[in-house]
Amino acid sequence: MEEGTSRSPSHCCDTDGPYNDAYQWDTREDCEVRQILDRIADKWSLLVIALLDRRTLRFTQLRREIDGVSQRMLTVTLRQLERDGLVRRTVHPVVPPRVDYELTKLGTTLLETTQALVAWTETHQGEVAAARADYDRRKIAEGEAAPAGV
């Protein structure tokens, strides 16, 4: 076995470097790093993690707080976060059933990162909006249609 090669078939990159060679893990479908990043970088997951900051919420409370999420998408997101060990689901034996969601100890380790992303977005939203408008103007001037959904 080559030096630096993991014995684990799902391990796809070395974690020693500052950027962990993104090209290495980004090209492998079975890479756990990519799968985890896909999960936690998903817009619904980020919102759920942020909303569960130091509190427990019921499904209906989460759905009310997250504008635009469907019941099915929230269910899928919560199940995936629970499977990944980031969210704890507690079912209370009452009628009707009451289900609470909270971050696990592992899930709370993501809060600082999530908050940093939100802070960056709030700080730079004007610059991003200006860049988008500039891009759209250039594309229109070049005779191309502006991107859909803008």
What this model shows, in words?
The chain has 150 residues and is mostly helical. The chain has a domain at 110-150. Helix content is 52%, strand content 9%. The chain contains seven helices and three strands. It has a three-stranded antiparallel β-sheet. It is elongated and about 65 Å long. The model is unreliable at 1-11 (pLDDT under 50).
Q: Order of strands in the sheet with the most strands?
A: 1-3-2
What is the terminal separation in angstroms?
50 Å
Number of helices: 7
Shape: elongated
Describe the SSE topology.
Layout: H1 22-26, H2 32-40, H3 43-51, E1 57-58, H4 59-65, H5 71-83, E2 87-92, E3 98-103, H6 105-108, H7 111-141
Antiparallel strand pairs: 1-3, 2-3
Give keywords:
3-stranded antiparallel beta sheet; disordered N terminus; single chain; mainly alpha; 150 residues
Give a quick rundown of the structure.
The protein is mostly helical. 52% of the residues lie in helices and 9% in strands. The chain has a domain at 110-150.
